[in-house]
Amino acid sequence: MRYVSTRGGAPELGFRDVLLAGLARDGGLYVPAEWPSFSADEIRALRGLTYPDLAIRLLTPFVAGEIEEAAFAAIVREAYATFRHDAVCPLVQTAPNEFVLELFHGPTLAFKDVAMQLLARLMDHVLAERGQRATIAGATSGDTGGAAIDAFAGRDRTDIFILFPHGKVSPVQQRQMTTSTATNVHAIAVEGNFDDCQDLVKGMFNHHAFRDGVHLSGVNSINWARIMAQIVYYFSSAVSLGAPDRPVSFTVPTGNFGDIFAAYAAKRMGLPVERLVIATNDNDILARTLATGTYETRGVVETTSPSMDIQVSSNFERLLFEAYGRDAESVVRLMQSLRQSGSFTIAHGPLQAIRAEFDAGRSSMEETAATIRSVLAGSGYLLDPHTATAIKVAREKADASTPMIVLSTAHPAKFPAAVEAASGITPALPAWLGDLMERSENYTVLPSDPKMLEDHISRRSRAARERSGS
Ligand SMILES: Cc1ncc(COP(=O)(O)O)c(C=O)c1O
Ligand SMILES: N[C@@H](CCOP(=O)(O)O)C(=O)O
């Protein structure tokens, strides 16, 4: 499998190089040169497989020829052995024809663990094979950071720098990033919002001298391997409800558009999916874009679902590339317009193509709180605010004949204040995180300044290289 950039100006790469590259050198995002395809019979044959076996079967076409078969199988099995549920990503029914896909049984209680546990092991494998070290930079609105730190902590081929918006993540999320004792972990609180953090990370990737000097690599969903890993649970959940003989729809709480793009990828690979529903909080840029055809950034609003407090939704670029018939020049024009004016308008044909697959809706903070209460009253099930956002939208968009699978992207205990305010219940952290709020913190506060950030990272990663002698 080869991978191409959405902006057409970077070399085609194989899986290992895409994994280490993160962002393409032309500023674009890598996608597979063609989508692997699974027939109805091949999808039927997935029934009854364990989650790791399903992952091995579905992901092999993306890594074939680059990661040796037995090594890949061992990496996948080890990654999902870190999950605390036998099914890894179980489905729970919350209403007739409504199912919640629980993605929070990994080490940091967020869906990010599903991809990150695999990504860290794959990177380690490739770096060891090449005798290299890498500096990893990631931006987080709260969950990617904790998941990445858990997955990379203590790995001696990587130094990881996670940028989070100072004071804008939940206390549990912050502690998951700032209490690691591993010497290769560096948490940075940026004076800004998530979009500022993401801009800083992309800026470092686009500064090629810096990028090459520190061997920069990325763990955000701009890295194709993140999306790839997230494809698996769309298949596992749909197959358990009867796919390919019974189509399903998905509602996905959406911020950076990585998770729902993985759903789109699953559909392109042959999974029968009726509707893909984007659920947003008050930061509703994607819902507005689908309604008007114009993608227009506004200021970020702080909400009770902070991980979705995002305006610049990076992976939407991957969808635009597909909707424009893989015409990279059009993508470059749209991205230039976004940079210059903070907006772009999607042409009629591509917009129709997007609307043919996707719906979108939003949930205000009040509606999200009301949904937490009503689902608790109706089925005794306690939602986190991100999942509640999605349930609210799913219930507006569902049709009676198609099962609606709603992605539950975080455990309620990550957001105890919002859950308690809505429901009166304070969800407890699981035993292995029981002392999280007592652990001591270690992080650096920096302004949203590219030069200061690069200096900070260069200094620390040089020291680590000297210590390791590489
Ligand atoms: C809990 C939670 N839900 C939903 C999202 C949105 O996912 P995506 O950015 O892939 O759209 C995030 C962050 O990305 C998250 O942390
Ligand atoms: N909500 C995310 C934002 C970053 O998204 P990513 O999927 O691109 O890593 C977070 O929790 O950090």
UniProtKB/TrEMBL annotation:
CDD domains: Thr-synth_2
Cofactor requirement: pyridoxal 5'-phosphate
Key word Cell membrane present: no
Domain of life: Bacteria
Pathway given in the UniProt record: Amino-acid biosynthesis; L-threonine biosynthesis; L-threonine from L-aspartate: step 5/5
Domain Threonine synthase N-terminal: 2-80
Gene3D superfamilies listed in its UniProt record: 3.40.50.1100, Threonine synthase, N-terminal domain
EC identifiers of the protein: 4.2.3.1
InterPro entries referenced in this protein's UniProt entry, alphabetically: Ser/Thr_deHydtase_PyrdxlP-BS, Thr_synth_N, Thr_synth_N_sf, Thr_synthase-like, Threonine_Synthase, TrpB-like_PALP, TrpB-like_PALP_sf
Assigned keywords, A-Z: Amino-acid biosynthesis, Lyase, Pyridoxal phosphate, Threonine biosynthesis
PROSITE patterns associated with the record: DEHYDRATASE_SER_THR (PS00165)
Family from the record: Belongs to the threonine synthase family.
NCBIfam families named among the record's database cross-references: thrC (TIGR00260)
Name of protein: Threonine synthase
Organism this protein belongs to: Neoaquamicrobium microcysteis
Taxonomic lineage from the root: Bacteria, Pseudomonadati, Pseudomonadota, Alphaproteobacteria, Hyphomicrobiales
